[in-house]
Specification:
This protein has helices spanning 3-41, 48-67, 78-81, 86-117, 130-134, 136-156. The protein is mainly alpha-helical.
Length: 171
Amino acid sequence: MTLQQSIKLGAWLRRRAENVLVALLSIMFGTFLIQIFFRYVLNNPVGWTEEVIVTTWLWTVLWGAAFILSEAEEIRFDIIYLHISERLRRIFTVTTGIAVVFLYGTSLPATYKYVAFMRVEHSAYLRVPIDLMYSVYLIFAVASIGRYCWLIFHAIRGGVSPKTDPAKVND
């Protein structure tokens, strides 16, 4: 596969990840409207809507952090980070990257065991196995390990460290 094909595939995969995020937000919003309608119009609150909203919120946050958020949008101590040399920024990138890979990598087996163990539990209203509801954390952890391995590799090879430009951050 050529570099150009890899870039096209990456862009296509990112758009699909964005589609999943849009679907999750749409489901959350629609369920929220249903909840309001049942509670305030029909005066008959339903519990399943809260489960759907909490689950889609969890999936939205972790899915977005794993596949949509760019490095420039990550939280940093910009007051320090923007005022140090590029070499020191790369050292920070490698150091924090190694720490993240180590922590997520170390916790991954126990996390998998716990999520797999939760297969025996079901949600109160929808009776969905809890392991399905919280499996997104495993996806997030594996994606984060991959992302930080790439950042470490890129920083070691002398690539420019990602910076947040305060003038370009959307409020």
